[in-house]
Amino acid sequence: MDKIIIELLNIFSSIIALSINVVAQIINFRIFTKLGLLKSIFIGFIVGLLSLLLIEYYLSIFYKVASFVFLFASVANLLAYTALGYCYFHFINLGETARRIRILSELYESKNGLTLNEILSKYNAEEIVKKRAVRLLHNNQIVFHEGRFLINKSILLIIAKTIVFLKIFILGKSQVDN
Amino acid sequence: MLIFFLLAFTIHLIVWKIKIPRKQTTAILKIFYGILIVGLVSLWFNYGNIFLILHIFIIYSALLAAYIITYTAIEVDSPSLVMILTISNAGDKGLKKDKLFTSLTDELLVIPRLRDLLRDNLAYLEYNKYKLTSNGQTFIKIFIFYRRLLKLPKGG
Question: Fewer CB within 10 Å: C terminus or N terminus of chain B?
Answer without folding.
Answer: N
